Amino acid sequence: MKKTEIICHCCGKTIIQADYLHIEKDWGYFSGGKDGERHEIDLCESCYDRWVRTFKYPPTVTERTELL
């Protein structure tokens, strides 16, 4: 795997498009065995869509008029 490749942690496919979800979490004390660890995941848009459909409450969505 090249350093510049981004792989979806859910489906394992190489993420080609620019839009994907990147999550970083630094776990603190009393985290249930993850104290001091940093976890990072990348999800392609398809896996993100499938994942959020499982939520009891959907994400808050705000429409933006300017895209950078």
Structural notes for this entry:
This protein has 68 residues and is of the alpha+beta class. It has one domain (1-60). Helix content is 12%, strand content 18%. The protein contains one helix and two strands.
Portion in helices:
10-25%
For the record, the count of structural domains works out to: 1
| Helix and strand composition category | alpha+beta
Major pleated sheet? 2 strands, antiparallel
Overall strand count: 2
List the total number of helices.
1
**SSE order:** EEH
Any idea what the shape is? extended
What is the spatial order of strands in the main beta sheet? Answer: 1-2
How confident is the prediction overall: mean pLDDT? Answer: 90
| Amino- and carboxy-terminal Cα gap | 28 Å
Task: Record keyword descriptors for this entry.
single chain, two-stranded antiparallel ribbon, alpha+beta, about 70 residues
Topology:
Blueprint: E1 21-26, E2 38-43, H1 45-52
Antiparallel strand pairs: 1-2
Short description:
With 68 residues, this protein is an alpha+beta fold. It has one helix spanning 45-52; strands spanning 21-26, 38-43.
